[in-house]
TrEMBL record, chains A, B:
<protein>
    <submittedName>
        <fullName>NUDIX hydrolase</fullName>
    </submittedName>
</protein>
<dbReference type="InterPro" id="IPR054105">
    <property type="entry name" value="WHD_NrtR"/>
</dbReference>
<dbReference type="Pfam" id="PF21906">
    <property type="entry name" value="WHD_NrtR"/>
</dbReference>
<dbReference type="InterPro" id="IPR036388">
    <property type="entry name" value="WH-like_DNA-bd_sf"/>
</dbReference>
<dbReference type="InterPro" id="IPR015797">
    <property type="entry name" value="NUDIX_hydrolase-like_dom_sf"/>
</dbReference>
<dbReference type="Pfam" id="PF00293">
    <property type="entry name" value="NUDIX"/>
</dbReference>
<dbReference type="GO" id="GO:0016787">
    <property type="term" value="F:hydrolase activity"/>
</dbReference>
<dbReference type="InterPro" id="IPR000086">
    <property type="entry name" value="NUDIX_hydrolase_dom"/>
</dbReference>
<keyword id="KW-0378">Hydrolase</keyword>
<feature type="domain" description="Nudix hydrolase">
    <location>
        <begin position="12"/>
        <end position="147"/>
    </location>
</feature>
<dbReference type="InterPro" id="IPR036390">
    <property type="entry name" value="WH_DNA-bd_sf"/>
</dbReference>
Amino acid sequence: MPTKSKDSWKIPKVAVAVDLAVLTVRDDELQILLIERAISPFRGQLALPGGFIASEREDIDAAAVRELAEETGLDANTLHLEQMRTYGTPERDPRGRVVTVCYLAVVPDLPLPTAGGDARAAHWEPVRTVLDDSTSVAFDHGSIIADAVDRARGKLEYTTLGAAFCASPFTISELRHVYETVWGQRLDPRNFHRKVTGVEGFLVATGERTTRDGGRPAALFRRGDARLMHPPILRAAKQ
Amino acid sequence: MPTKSKDSWKIPKVAVAVDLAVLTVRDDELQILLIERAISPFRGQLALPGGFIASEREDIDAAAVRELAEETGLDANTLHLEQMRTYGTPERDPRGRVVTVCYLAVVPDLPLPTAGGDARAAHWEPVRTVLDDSTSVAFDHGSIIADAVDRARGKLEYTTLGAAFCASPFTISELRHVYETVWGQRLDPRNFHRKVTGVEGFLVATGERTTRDGGRPAALFRRGDARLMHPPILRAAKQ
DNA sequence: GAAATAGTGTCTCTTAGACAATATGCG
DNA sequence: CGCATATTGTCTAAGAGACACTATTTC
């Protein structure tokens, strides 16, 4: 905090933006929501949704919620949204100094409400193609996306974030599929079932069951109130 | 990121600061480094060390390192420093809009090099007295400190951050004392010993031993290269 | 030897992981 | 019934937690 001995000197002011890393599991892949930039710099390139704070009075979290609605049509009340990290190297934006506060959002694979609003060409892209550089993104958004994926992978272990990837109500198979996709790792269906049903507050049974082509119908659940999972579900150790 | 359809409108600029939550274990307590504010607002009150970025060109991480040196005399090369979270509610600073990027630092209990520089009245305060409001701090620094403590407590579980609280070389007893103090929880010395010595890369034996009054001398260790601990040391479940 | 602290070993119980068996729908 | 998927159960091995014992120093 400001505690300079001399009060009399100019405090530099910089532009503050928010960026959103919106993740989902879709087509058996972890995917991220990208938009096509309409303006320079990086015009026409893919980038994270986001933007500058609207005024000097706008709260940062509120700006994230607003940009989410404006650029993707998504409603922050229906999804997981958390602040992730701030990126502030001086050269990260060619127009000048921009400090951006990044948020991680997790949504189920539902049709994007791109209909109205400012949503231009928002679409899903597998994170795989971003991480291996076969899809290039604007600014330093590549490393932001890498950070977001790391964060999501880690949080599946010790929080109930996995359920935020599932449209409610969901089956345990669907939840397991989220874990398998995000971690890129197969999990034993029976052990997974035992584990997640044993975590108090993770899942709330609706009493309903799926109706489907073949196979026994699965029980349907909603996300419970628990946010932390204790003990965690650990990934296999680094290979 | 900036992707407004209309390019022609004023981008609000705000002051950006960095704040430092420097933690140590001292006198059997988790303590935090606070300074006495020399200027208004909150003049004379305790606050986290920190300050505005020096210029439009200064990197955020660099600003944290600089403020750490200026306000506490500590050298970022000798300690653990990581970005924690950004605080940006509009009313958090009475002087106007200030967005502050907060860093968590962890240091061993060594004499503060307060001798030279800008270090004014930097001193250690038990976090307990801040968390229970018996010590009041400026701005929203109370909740920042609470977040920093949460972060540190959590990171002891699945990282080797604990060793950053110890002056090198250190004994396993000293490391255990860090865990016990930060978590506020007794740990079995024998199980702890077995656990931490079993984590590859956590501890590097120096071959030296302590010399002391009574009791068998303890082996001395340095911090190893490992930063993540797999599997983690879990705290007892919430009681 | 007594006191103090370090370090090793052992036992038990919980739980993760592998895998078999049963349940319940559909055609 | 046969197929497909869900769910429960069983076994084993690894690890956490409790606790006893041995080791090495100083006085």
